[in-house]
Amino acid sequence: MNRDRAVLMKSLDKDNLRFIDFLVEMGFMRDVKIINAFKHVPRHLFVKDKDMDNAYRDTPLDICADSNITQPSTVALMLEHLDLNEGDKVLEIGTGSGWNAALIGYCVGSRGKVVSLEIEKSIATFASGNIIKAGIDNVDVLWKDGASGHMDMAPYDKVIYTAAVRAVPDIVLAQVKVGGMVLAPIGGKARQVLTRMEKIREVEFRKTELGRIEFRPLVGWGE
User: Cα–Cα 20 to 30 A to 152, which of 20, 113, 136, 158?
Assistant: First the structure.
């Protein structure tokens, strides 16, 4: 790494810490695991070089193939609601930049596992490279349509959608352990409600609506 880039990285690390303080002060993060994840998996490793100066603005940033990296406050809020534990196995539907998957990977630790599904090959490749840069080794990014989940690795403790869906299909719900949960933006293409679905029994879920949210729709969900 040349001197100029080393200086830039050091400056971005400081920006990250200041931004974490802001997110904590605003109430988006309370869980120490999430705070530590944001410290050790910095957002600037997951954005395009041209957007480095904007890495610590609370806004989405375009990456590739009409996808983006979600704004940090939304990522923090969703991870808080996901209630991650050491050793959890997590399915993520919609990889994007890979930042969310890497944060989850940090939170679940070496005994945990993250499987992230991405339908667009260029995005999956971009995310995989970013996750390697961040030094996270318990995340598998799979290039595949996430509409039906990933039965090969089921059951999961947690499932998180990072794209909007009209409803979580039964085939995905069946891949969640009893005692686990699904977290998803559910609704129309313009606005959705962040919804937590906790699996009480094999075919019974307790649903909690957590507030308005806005995500791009899951690719292939139709009109």
Answer: 136
Q: What's residue 83's pLDDT?
A: 94
CA distance linking residue 146 with residue 159, whole number of Å: 11
**What are the boundaries of each domain within the chain?**
3-213
Grade residue 10 by pLDDT with cuts at 50, 70 and 90.
confident
Q: Selecting from 3.40.50.150, 3.30.300.30, 3.40.50.300, 3.30.70.360, what CATH number does the domain 3-213 have?
A: 3.40.50.150
CB 179 within 8 A of CB 186: no
Contact 160, 91 (CB under 8 A): yes
Residue 174 has pLDDT above 90, yes or no: yes
DSSP codes of every residue in 138-178: SEEEEES--TT--GGG--EEEEEESSBBSS--HHHHTTEEE
What does the alpha-carbon distance between residue 57 and residue 26 come to, in Å, rounded to a whole number? Answer: 14
Residue 133: what pLDDT?
94
86: burial class by Cβ within 10 Å (0-12, 13-18, 19+)?
exposed
Quote the tokens at residue 163: 């794209």
pLDDT at 8: 65
How far apart, in whole angstroms, are the C-alpha atoms of residue 140 and residue 128? 8
